[in-house]
Design goal:
- By secondary structure, this protein is of the alpha/beta class.
- The chain is built from nine helices and eleven strands.
- The protein has one domain: TIM Barrel (Alpha-Beta Barrel).
- The chain is globular, with a radius of gyration of 18 Å.
- It comes from Bacteroides reticulotermitis JCM 10512.
- InterPro entries: AKR2_Oxidoreductase, NAD(P)_OxRdtase_dom_sf, NADP_OxRdtase_dom.
- It holds the Pfam family Aldo_ket_red.
- This is NADP-dependent oxidoreductase domain-containing protein.
Length: about 240
């Protein structure tokens, strides 16, 4: 397995990570088998944005004594107040869900505390105004989170968060089709209609974002790598051929 440094954090992550959303709702045996298979193949980073107690507890149980062998991205602001994935910018709610994450995972630290779903300028302003950034910085000072990250699908907002100087890592939606989509486009709303887009070259705003990360030694973990699976299909890929 190849490993790459996570910016200036001193941690190094496998180039293949485990996005665990597909494990939500699965029986414990499936979670355990998947987690153990990842560890056995030297995968050492997992993203846990799912807010439910059951999936978090199952992952914590499956990791067990090997918790130290896995870098965990844990999201602050991901909740399930309406019995489904939701976003909160309320400080007390975010605290409650983060503390439950620690309890569910049977751990006293999270490797990367992620500012969840920074897709709008309003969202970034809210976490500043509501004390959430101060809370995360305090968690880092205490060692409860060892570094700070953010997740986003919007290159302009992502750049603004990065320029604040508080994050070491960005989780961003990157694939050949998204990279050629204009920065102002809602890629999550576009993903079902990739074939309708016009693809010429990488969007300059996205290119500048990636260049900035490289210059500032901010790591990127990638989501939506295959466009929801559409890039694996010759029929559904906008390039009329499957990505390999």
């Amino acid at each position: 397995m190849e490993y790459r440094n996570i910016g200036k954090t001193g941690m190094a992550a496998s180039v293949i990570g485990l996005g665990a959303e597909h494990l939500d709702g699965k029986p414990y045996a499936v979670v355990e088998e998947t987690i153990h298979a990842a560890l056995e193949h030297d995968i050492n980073i997992i993203d846990i944005f799912m807010p439910g107690d059951e999936i978090r507890s199952n992952i914590g149980k499956a990791l067990g004594s090997r918790r130290k062998d896995m870098i965990i991205q844990g999201h602050i602001g991901s909740v399930d107040l309406s019995q489904q994935y939701d976003i909160s910018r309320d400080l007390d709610t975010c605290k409650r869900y983060f503390e439950k994450l620690l309890t569910n995972l049977q751990t006293d630290y999270i490797d990367v505390g992620m500012l969840f779903f920074m897709d709008t300028h309003e969202a970034f302003q809210q976490i500043q105004d509501n004390g959430i950034i101060d809370y995360v910085l305090e968690l880092k000072k205490q060692g409860v989170v060892r570094s700070i990250g953010t997740s986003s699908h919007n290159p302009e907002v992502a750049r603004k968060v990065l320029e604040s100087g508080i994050v070491d890592l960005m989780m961003f939606s990157i694939n050949p089709a998204f990279d050629m989509t204009p920065a102002e486009t809602d890629v999550l709303g576009t993903i079902g209609n990739l074939a309708e887009q016009q693809y010429v070259t990488i969007d300059p705003v996205r290119a500048e974002l990636y260049k900035y990360c490289e210059q500032q030694e901010i790591a990127i973990t990638v989501m939506k790598t295959l466009g929801g699976g559409r890039l694996l299909s010759s029929e559904h890929s906008p390039f009329k051929k499957r990505c390999r």
